[in-house]
Design a protein that fits this description.
The protein is an alpha+beta fold. Helices cover 23% and strands 21% of the residues. The chain is built from 4 helices and 10 strands. The protein has a 5-stranded mixed sheet. The chain has a 3-stranded antiparallel sheet with strand order 1-10-7, with helices on one face. It has a two-stranded antiparallel ribbon with strand order 2-3. β2 and β3 form a beta hairpin. It starts with a strand and ends in a 14-residue tail after the last strand.
């Protein structure tokens, strides 16, 4: 496990489009899937990472809290399943069903979507407004495995509430931290290990 920080993609960046299959429904998911939403949260997570396991129930609860409030959510895993078979699509599906995810969970086999978003760690969060403009990237909150800080989601939720209420999102944002994305050998992006 390599502790890795978010790259902190510049605010104002437009959401890169993607077309990935939801491991549960088999539906193709893209930015158009969320065209009627006031905001879109793109989360890079996986099954095995202790940082994700620490937050997984809170992520499921976040989906339920905002399902009727205009927030679209998609979770994406980009880990190499050759080296990390526990993150394979069947394990992702099991995780989503066990936790009751009410949002798509997609597998980015090529890792190109993760690269387009400059995703670096799991979990890594990217929040876009109705124009698909990045307004928040960073941590869920200050809680980490073993630090005894309660899981509240305060950082991410504050940004979600602001964007849903047409308020300016605070630009002082702390990076997320987690396990590095498990890049396929030779497919590591330039920002990996920086």
């Amino acid at each position: 496990m390599v502790k890795t920080l978010s790259t902190m993609l510049p605010l104002g960046t437009k959401a890169p489009d993607f077309s990935l299959e939801d491991v549960v429904s088999g539906d193709k998911i893209s930015l158009k899937t969320f065209a009627d939403k006031k905001a879109l949260l793109v989360m890079f997570i996986c099954v095995h990472c202790p940082f994700v396991k620490h937050l997984q129930n809170a992520l499921a609860a976040l989906g339920k809290e905002y399902v009727d409030k205009g927030l679209g959510i998609v979770a994406i895993s980009a880990n190499d399943i050759t080296t990390h078979p526990g993150d394979a699509p069947d394990k992702m599906k099991e995780m989503a069903e066990t936790l009751g995810f009410n949002f798509p969970f997609c597998y980015d086999e090529s890792q190109e979507v993760a690269k387009a978003y400059t995703a670096a760690c799991t979990p890594d969060f990217f929040l876009f407004d109705a124009d698909n403009t990045l307004v928040y990237r960073g941590q869920f909150d200050d809680s980490r495995p073993g630090n005894d800080v309660p899981i509240t989601g305060k950082d991410l939720k504050a940004a979600i509430e602001d964007v849903l209420r047409d308020r300016k999102v605070d630009t002082q944002q702390k990076p997320s931290i987690g396990c590095n994305i498990k890049w396929k050998a030779g497919n590591e992006p330039p920002y990996f290990g920086v």
